[in-house]
Design brief:
- Two copies of one chain form a homodimer.
- Chain A is of the alpha/beta class.
- Chain A is 39% helix and 24% strand.
- The first copy, chain A, has a six-stranded mixed sheet with strand order 2-1-3-8-7-6, with helices on both faces. In chain A, strands 14-13-15-16-17 form a five-stranded mixed sheet, sandwiched between helices.
- In chain A, helix 3 packs across helix 4, helix 9 packs parallel to helix 14 and helix 10 crosses helix 14.
- The first copy, chain A, is globular.
- The first copy, chain A, starts with 5 loop residues before the first strand and ends with a helix.
- The relative contact order of chain A is 0.08.
- At the A-B interface, helix 1, helix 2, strand 2, helix 10 and strand 14 of A face helix 1, helix 2, strand 2, helix 7 and strand 10 of B.
């Protein structure tokens, strides 16, 4: 079954994309998901909300590819014109579907909201197309065939697109192309290592034409190493090799953010946690709270921006603040210990730093962050220099860095 | 000068893009820069590192557009094949440029590095193309004409692409199309209104072919209405009309998230705030903390997941929790008032709800959220039904909804 992958194209629709106001992130997500079922994206086309352009894009793609996945332009407003473009490509008109309208009415009713007349548009589909259900929004998708290609049209809203791709498109494609080489993707996730450093450690595995294909993408200090092959055992073996070479920077073998791995670790150890944050302003607690079921271990969070709050809530001593300042290793330690004690938790976290753009000094420049982790036996602290990062990227990275330190402290790894 | 914009296309090249390992961010950046000089991107095409595909993409685009900007595939390795594709589109061969080679040699020498033989490739350009200097890397770009279109080919590395676009491509385009209409963009931002409702209110302004062009994009309950025109006064006038029609759902006339508008409002009124969060887990505080300078008004955040923390930190009474439960309007009010009092702030916020996926009951289903805002004079509360939203989308929307309620409370608008 290691045959050539089925050729596919992706079509993204929206003036906001061609004019550059938004970056299209749907297409790369779709490409990755298609590859996993043996469908290889060979071209991505992005056109604006122009009926003739959309129709032409469908027609051209259908002559080159066997599978087309399109997103965008299914909303209720005037400029959402993908239905019309698809109908033109089919040489057909549009048809009202009463059951679609009922669903839309139901959705509005459930939220106690009036239905704008314009939503009626979303109950129409091109003649010859059949609907793809949308559990997360009013815009149904649809599927049709053109020049022998099967075409799926999904909304551009990522959460809607993602669910419809997983629940409808991928199962249909698996059924339609049962012999397609299924690509198996293994993932190794790392926090805090550079792409170059990772690349150097696994350069031989990343050679061009190698099977499995090994690739790195880095986003906000989290690296995702993908190991893809039609040979499931080979993908798993090489993923194991990658993880072994990279060592303690690896926080998960699943495609999940670090907060999920850390929450699972806390849940598995039945270790409760309390987080005291200054510059991150609640983000570390919010990352943890993103994980379902975390309430069993997340006891409390303290957003203590002011010295008063650090003193009142965490018992940081005014003398410590006067002598070392709020941005200091001593303060991070006192915050972590104070949070642990006040909340009666097993693990305490303290984060303090200067997120900028203002507030820096020569001794304590913007980007300086201290993170402390308090356990029963010891409190560990580390100093970071995130100079040059934009305020909110810095805050995000600092919050996740703290979670990585929680992981390292619990597992007994070096800070 | 109010002529139609010059049609342009963007071409991004790389297997890592078509296979989805990387998201193409160059194209949207190029599109925005082009629009500012009156060149409107109408299509973005992404193809892999396949010589024939690249040649075809150049040829097709040159038949539709007057300007083409391409990025990617100019590196020294085997798979970088954009030069060959461009030469094929021109029906030409490649030519060695001694002065390019000298520059590459010089660049390596300056860093004390040996020159890999493979870099010689970068000293070749298609016959008929002229070079675009690259101050930040070894890969020169090049420009040529095809079917009457002017084509610029730049490297895919963002920092190299960006500099060459600014220093070479945009000046050339300004010179070549001196009469091109420069576009001005105004923005109206709304929170909590559906795309359909907004579309209905401004349908006449969104009519196709209208000047200014009015378009809506919605992301996570925040709507962005873009009003774009070569006529600066017209864009501003229509933006004012849009804002007037939409009324209190408009939180800003700048392209900023609601937390920024609310932080500015608090700073302008010198009103301090404290936030008590259950289901949002620190996210509302973190959103506020994303705004530089907010420390002057953000006194404190309380992430009170447990009943114990609600009682200890916010003074919520055990009786209230026993009779109404933690997810109740009463509890949200007590949290808002408790946060305001404990922190000594002017505004207190209380958020409590069921984010799911577990924890729902028949009376209190997943998606039920109560938000209260405590001011000196009164405490306001509202109930929301966010059923059907994924846990973290729900948390994000609930946190921003609370900030919108802060805005409304301070401005005396209805909840």
């Amino acid at each position: 079954v290691n045959q050539a992958p089925i050729p596919a194209e992706i079509l993204a629709i929206g003036d906001e994309l061609t004019q550059g106001w938004n970056t299209d992130t749907n297409s790369s997500e779709i490409a990755r998901e298609l590859l996993a079922v043996g469908i290889a994206g060979s071209r991505i086309t992005i056109v604006g909300d122009e009926r003739a352009q959309i129709a032409a894009a469908f027609t051209e793609a259908s002559r080159r590819a066997q599978v087309i996945v399109a997103t965008g332009g299914l909303g209720p407003t005037e400029d959402d014109i993908t239905r019309e473009g698809a109908a033109d490509a089919l040489g057909a008109g549009q048809q009202f579907h009463a059951e679609l309208w009922d669903r839309i009415v139901e959705r509005f009713r459930a939220r106690g909201r009036a239905i704008p007349e314009s939503n009626k548009k979303q109950a129409f589909l091109p003649v010859g197309a059949s609907r793809i259900p949308n559990a997360n929004g009013t815009a149904p998708g649809f599927t049709f065939e053109l020049n022998g290609a099967v075409i799926f049209v999904l909304p551009g809203v990522p959460v809607e697109m993602r669910a419809m791709l997983a629940n409808f498109v991928l199962p249909q494609l698996r059924e339609r192309f049962p012999g397609a080489a299924r690509y198996h993707r293994n993932v190794v996730k790392c926090f805090g290592s550079s792409e170059a450093a990772i690349g150097e450690a696994i350069a031989d595995l990343m050679a061009r034409g190698a099977d499995p294909i090994v690739g790195i993408t880095v986003s906000r200090v989290t690296s995702t190493i993908s190991i893809v092959s039609a040979n499931e055992a080979a993908a798993a073996r090489v993923a194991g090799e990658v993880a072994a070479r990279l060592g303690p920077v690896v926080y998960s073998r699943r495609d999940e953010p670090i907060e999920q791995a850390v929450a699972q670790l806390l849940l598995s150890k039945n270790a409760t946690i309390a987080v005291a944050e200054s510059c991150t302003g609640g983000l570390a607690a919010a990352f943890l709270a993103s994980v379902p079921g975390v309430s069993a271990v997340l006891k409390e969070g303290f957003v203590t921006y002011s010295n008063d709050a650090k003193i009142a809530r965490l018992g940081v001593s005014p003398e410590l603040l006067a002598s070392h300042g709020a941005v200091s290793e001593e303060c991070a330690r006192a915050m972590a210990e104070g949070a642990r004690e006040a909340a009666g938790a097993d693990v305490g976290v303290g984060i303090t730093g200067i997120a900028g753009p203002g507030g820096g000094t020569r001794e304590k420049p913007v980007g300086l962050v201290f993170i402390a982790i308090a356990l029963a036996a010891e409190t560990r602290a580390a100093r970071y220099n995130f100079a040059g990062l934009e305020r909110n990227l810095l805050r995000e990275i600092a919050a996740r860095q703290a979670l990585d330190q929680v992981r390292r402290a619990i597992l007994g790894l070096p800070a």
